[in-house]
Amino acid sequence: MKRQIASSFPTAKPFKLPPSLALPRPAPPKAVRRAGLDVPIPRFFSDQPDRSDFCHVRAGTGIVVDRIGAVTDYRYELLGHLLSGNLFVEPYLVTLLTGAEPYTSFQHPGLKFIYLLSGDIGYQYGTRVVRLGVGDSLLFDASALHGIEDIGTQPVTYLSAVFTFRR
């Protein structure tokens, strides 16, 4: 039955508008600048006027935060905080102090990014362990168990940023 119906219709040929009827293309950014507007095109479609907060933290002046669930001798220095938007970002400079012990039971919502600034560590994510040295980074879903499994060369400092949606 389907073949009979299908065979009764002729094969459609592609249709192309002649150039005289084609829709105009959007103006490139250069044309926008020529019109006296030195504004990137995406700015016209964003909610930037509603977002005016930013955070500038000078070197060494971040707020030391006593995080719930954080283990002893892990020092968290908050490097920024924004009040608007749907995305909540927690950027920290983390320093392992002299008495710091490995801890692999961190687990929380969001994505986590780590960038090692000094030292050498074994970092556990789920059942995997990755060796990190200076300049290495990790990006992962923080809902899995994770944390430092082995502290090698010290001092250990790293940037840690957690990204979650506000509710």
From TrEMBL:
Query: Which InterPro entries does the record associate with it?
Result: Cupin_2, RmlC-like_jellyroll, RmlC_Cupin_sf
Q: Pfam families, per this entry?
A: Cupin_2 (PF07883)
Positions of the Cupin type-2 domain: 93-161
- The entry's protein name is Cupin domain-containing protein
